[in-house]
Amino acid sequence: MQVSLKARTATKVKLVIEASQFVEPAKQAGFDLWAGVPCSFLTPFINYTIADSGLTYISAANEGDAVAVASGAVLGGRKGVAMMQNSGLGNAISPLTSLNYVFKIPILLIVTLRGEPGRPDEPQHELMGQITPQLLEIMRIPWRCFPEKAEDIESILAEAVQYMEEHQRPFALIMRKAAVAPYGLPDIDRIRKVPVSAPIVAAGPATTCSPAPSRNEVLSELIAQTEIYDTILLASTGFSGRELFAIEDRPNHLYMVGSMGCITSLGLGLSLARPDKKVVVIDGDGAALMRMGNMATVGAYAGDNYYHLLLDNGVHESTGGQQTVSAVMDFSAVAEACGYRSVIRSHGNIPIDVLLQQASPALLYIQTRQGVPDGLPRPAIKPAEVARRLMGQIQSKV
To answer: Which of 69, 82, 204, 370 is least enclosed by beta carbons within 10 angstroms?
Structure first.
């Protein structure tokens, strides 16, 4: 199915296309949210998408988060592209195999080919250059060589779109060096800035002498305080999703499996795709620590509908209660430093109503006690069905 990269290596005359020749047809095909991590091969695309006000570009903290952001956009009804250097493909393996594959979320991948056999490159790219196509194939992601001639672009995009629509899974393009002509970085800054003097910490009601609530109590209050048609609840990997399902299974819920730490970036992509919905990301201390760079991305790009509920019980409870390192750091201070517009810290109460009234992106940090309800079930609905149900719910009207 794939075109041989070795055959392309033998090409003597290198043809290049303009960034616009690919991005504009992709835009017409619906690909309007692009997320990625810079690579010199990708510079023309990144610069072009930043310059185009009709596109959204998210500079992700790492490649796996770019995949999750693009996937969140797909859940919200948009088409997403994740761009990365092939050395970063390793960072993306977790969401590609346990988010996109399991939930059947199709995104377009553009992966650069550093360390291409027969071309001099830095030593760290040597092995990845040899195995990039095989990695994609092992992950059951079909790929094509990125088009080197303008006349090939339409057919390759059509093939990618057809596969993604039929199979609901990612499709990849492998880009060789100098495949796209240079495009200068525009003098545009699309990252939201929070004034240093702005009072971004909201003092929510807190009673430090009260006992910590359970995760179940917090989630029960969250369900009570939110409506199905205007709010989306995304639960992190582990007991958060299982308890949310057990309390009440609603069509505006998503229960993450695998992809630990990606819930915040998934929520970011979804919130950008559907600014008319409140997106509540239910996170845990272990997951938040795993991909804490996401908080900076949220602070930079999230709009007025992103609410981050971080539950900290100090342990990886679903794997036996091993301690996390949350006791030696301050999530609230991290959120403030990352540009969240509101931060609420609670030790003894559950101010969900306060969270949903704050300027966002907003964080509500709650220390919770350990413990799991007896007989806690796993979601009875398969992940792909959860995703399709959520997408249908988002598109429905009251």
So the answer is: 370
Q: Partners of 143 in the beta sheet?
A: 172
Q: Hey, which residues does 17 pair with through a beta bridge?
A: 180
In sequence order, which ranges of 105-149 are alpha helices (DSSP H)?
126-138
Q: Which helix (H) or strand (E) holds 21?
A: helix 19-28
Task: Please report which residue ranges of 120-277 form alpha helices under DSSP H.
Answer: 126-138, 150-167, 215-225, 239-247, 263-273
- Residue 11: phi and psi, rounded to 5, are -65, 130
What are 131-177's pLDDT values in tens digits?
A: 999 999 999 999 999 999 999 999 999 999 999 999 999 999 999 99
Cα separation, 361 vs 352, in Å, equals: 14
Unique residue bearing structure tokens 């392309």: 8
If you average pLDDT over every residue of the chain, what do you get?
Answer: 90
Q: How far apart are CA 398 and CA 391, in angstroms?
A: 15
158/223 same-domain check: no
- CATH number of the domain to which 170 belongs: 3.40.50.970
* Chain center to CA of 55: 17
Predicted local confidence at residue 353, as pLDDT:
94
Q: What's the longest Cα–Cα distance across the chain?
A: 74
Which residue range forms the structural domain that includes residue 168? 5-175
Count CB atoms within 10 A of the CB of residue 198: 11
Closest to 283 measured CA to CA, from 246, 213, 331 = 331
| pTM above threshold 0.85 | yes
